Amino acid sequence: MPVATPIECVSSNLAGRAAESARTRWCGRFAKELAERVGTAAEAGVLLAQAEFEVVWPAEGPGPLQAVLDGVLRRHVHNPDGMERLFAALEFQYGEPRWLTAHRQGYQAIRAERWGLLPAVAPGLLDAQERADLDTLLGDPGCPTEPGELCEVLWAAASSLGLPAARDGLLTAEQAGTVTALVEELDARNSPAGRVPPLLVFLEHLAARAEDVARADLRAWIDAVAQARADRVPTGRLAEERAAADAAASVSDTCHASLTSCLVRVEGSGPGAGRYRLAAWLYRRGRCLGIKVQDDTVYTAAEISGGAEELIARLQPYVQHLDPETLTFEFLLPWEALGWPVDEWNLRGGGQLAVARPIGRYGPVVVRSLDRLRDGWSTSQWTARWERLDGRSAADDPPPRACWLDGDGTPADEADDRSESDCRPLVADMASPQALAAEVASRKDISCLILTYPYPHLATTVPDALLSAIQEGVPAAVWWRGHRDGSVPPGRARRVAELAEAGAGLSGLPATVLTLRQEAARCAKGSHDGTGIAVLWDNPGWHPERLRRLGGPRAHRGGNG
């Protein structure tokens, strides 16, 4: 066996030291970048777990995140399969921004022992002249470049832009407030092969909302750039994006009173009761705009409020430019959870709350039935009753009126407030829920129920009168979670019905309930009609689960069960 000469040994040793030094420098730079981008030890743990990297956090706490990440990377930098899993997890979470492309290319360089070479990262899409021409076009008064308008464009383009670009673009539009800053943000982003670059996606949607001359000029510029960058801009996909932008811009902004919804789905996890998983969507005008977050943790009923609050907080960057009163919070719940006090859960951000900030005091909060959503047999009645409630019934039909549902706890003198013109009340007879369901099915005029007895808020018994009515297609209901003496004060149901009808009618019920909750917050506990009030508001046409969407970042926090 040949023996290496002293010179060969020294040369080999020097090369090995240079390679290890390059790996160490790369790990330090990558750890610093990840610590700034990821932000918390919990989120870093999720990404490292997806790469199958084992992390032993110090007993006294995670310590400085950058140091922990640096140590993990140094242990695994020689494991190319693991590093590829880490890069894949990062691309799923962040897309393909330039910083991630640079670090991936740096890793590939040291693997190929080209540690002296700096990785070349593709520059922004535009050259200096193209950028100058674009700035001139965007200065046209016919282009919608106010901060609020830019946010609307980004919302419409979110599914094609991807979550990271949409999120960062919204933050830029909100904070910088200029189209110039937004163009710089999007131009700095690479796009995967076969995808339209984020800047051109945004500009297509901007052009769709511009005035005629400005639209034509901007799209002529887009076509010229696409032709000059044929290797980076797939023409077929660009045409599809243009059609999608035109379709999105053609939807009337006034077709619904509340344009944006945050929907939180609570779904049972596996066999048995009392354990749940969470997911949340943002959607608008009946279509999901590509923004979804999901939490794989399994929660008990006692833990679910905290999990939901954290999930809603993850969506906050996408809607921070909106007034909370224009954002409807919807909770899609299983039968046993419809009475949960979701309006009393809190809006959280990155810091600690000084005082409680209940969602129901800041924006409309409604509940929806998950079981009915997945039960196709009630869809036709549900849709017909909703159309009447939403003002789309035949012109000669009388306007929808609330129907009372009496039960155990209805005040004895409640009936004294009723007139002959009222709908005939229903009675919640727990001994015969089938009879109630049959009566609801036969009465097509019932679109909204107002309960005159307290509804349990920790758990419900199936079968149940309210649930039977929901299963038969009733899309709206109002109830109270109980007064201090275990009853609903007399006349409360009548007052709320009259208040709704005096405003926008029953179609404005969520806004009416929001006003009541805000007034109740300023009064002694239990003394106001808005105390403990809940509303079911279930539009059969708005199903985020069935709408086109882009899978967003998953919380992947590791189940507790």
From TrEMBL:
Residues 274-540 form the vWA-MoxR associated protein C-terminal domain. InterPro entries: VMAP-M0 (IPR045555), VMAP_C (IPR045450). Residues 390-399 have a biased composition (Basic and acidic residues). Residues 129-228 form the vWA-MoxR associated protein middle region domain. Residues 390-420 are annotated as: Disordered. This is Uncharacterized protein.
